[in-house]
Amino acid sequence: MPVLPATDEAIAYAAELLRSGALVVFPTETVYGLGGDASNPKAVAKIFAAKERPQFNPLIVHVSDLAQAEALADFGPAAYELASAFWPGPLTIVAPKSPDCPIADLVTAGLDTIAIRVPGHPVAQRLLKEASGPIAAPSANRSGRISPTEARHAAAELVDIPGVILDGGACTCGLESTVVSTAGEDPVVLRLGAVPRSAIEAVLGHPIPVAKKDAPIASPGQLERHYAPQTPLRLNALTVEADEALLGFGSELPDCSAKAINLSRTGDLTEAAARFFAALRELDESGASAIAVMPIPNEGLGEAINDRLRRAAKAR
Ligand code: TXA
Ligand code: MG
Questions:
Q1: Containing domain of residue 125, as a range?
Q2: 60 lines ligand 1 (CB under 6 A)
């Protein structure tokens, strides 16, 4: 896919492509998305084909505001509280599909719920307004691989796919949206992500569990092996073997003779999250025999980073 700087003209052109059923990669504050018209089954089928994605894995529908979301889903009190606290932003809300929901069945993979997000990135906002309809968009990587946080990452993932990539710079959050289901009795986190669980708990006023991976309500997309580089990862490493690259965190790094990247010298988890996927990609391309990953504190955004690391490290 060709990369275009996200000028007004490029956004207008991309909106035109979306209306015609073609695919567009666009930036959000979390990761780049591979978008298609969510009400057009052919456009949605192109997304699954481009990603080589298992069809049972449903997609997030992106809309420009709460009013558009309300046309697609039945929001209860918790969904409204979350939407007003976190939209526009890096939160995805799962709710029962409304009876007259115009979204293609393929998007929700036959479920009676739908995942909706209002992204805050200005390019995503302008594209959604110009395209005028909901856009289905998974992360713009091939299924199971590292999510793209820069336009060039998406270009490397999606060679030979027709459409365009809007370049809006590096994503500021760097981890996918947090997915919360409000479809059951009590809200549950289906996927840890860019909104820390503690922030959601503060808004709702009670603890929110993370769904077990085999719970019936769990996100079908939570495949155990995911976000995976080609190079093996070694987690919680305190020393680095010869030939190993290092993904570091904090002020003191062990000696490393191969490539080393520090996610945050000051131990800042927000900075670490923003740099995480790009760093993993760069170390994967460094030719090291393995990547040693230093421990990341399991608090705040660290919970989502550790979730990604654990999946990325699963043996093939
Ligand atoms: O940050 C993000 O969320 C990015 C940007 C582009 O918005 N998108 C993204 O989409 O990460 P994707 O397709 O890679 O992940 C969507 C997640 C999957 O885990 C999927 O199973 C879950 O959302 N999901 C979608 N619809 C669902 C539904 N109706 N019920 C439960 N989980 C759902
Ligand atoms: Mg993804």
A1: 3-204
A2: yes
User: Is 56 found in the same domain as 167?
Assistant: yes
Answer yes or no: is the C-beta of 28 below 6 A from any ligand 1 atom: yes
Q: Residue 305: inside a domain, yes or no?
A: yes
Domain count of the fold of the chain: 2
Q: For residue 147, name the pLDDT band (cuts at 50, 70, 90).
A: very high
CA proximity to 110, closest of 44, 64, 52? 44
Are 243 and 106 part of one and the same domain?
no
Q: Are residues 56 and 182 in the same domain?
A: yes
Question: pTM for the full model?
Answer: 0.93
CATH number of the domain to which 144 belongs: 3.90.870.10
Domain closes at, from 185, 204, 223: 204
If you measure from the C-alpha of residue 191 to the centroid of ligand 2, how many angstroms do you get, rounded to a whole number? Answer: 11
- Ligand 1: does its nearest atom lie under 6 Å from the Cβ of 313? no
Return d(Cα 17, Cα 293) in angstroms, integer: 41
Cβ proximity of 312 and 229 under 8 Å: yes
Output the CA 9–ligand 2 centroid distance in Å.
28
Beta-sheet pairing, 244-248 with 260-262: parallel
> What is the DSSP code (8-state) at residue 33?
E
The reply to whether 226 falls in a domain is no
Helices 77-86 and 197-204: crossing angle, nearest 10°? 120
Q: What is the pLDDT of residues 70-105, one digit of tens each?
A: 999 999 999 999 999 999 999 999 999 999 999 999
Residue 199 shares a structural domain with residue 244: no
Residue 6: CB within 6 Å of ligand 1?
no
Number of residues that this document lists for the chain: 316
**Cα 148 to the center of its chain, rounded Å:** 9
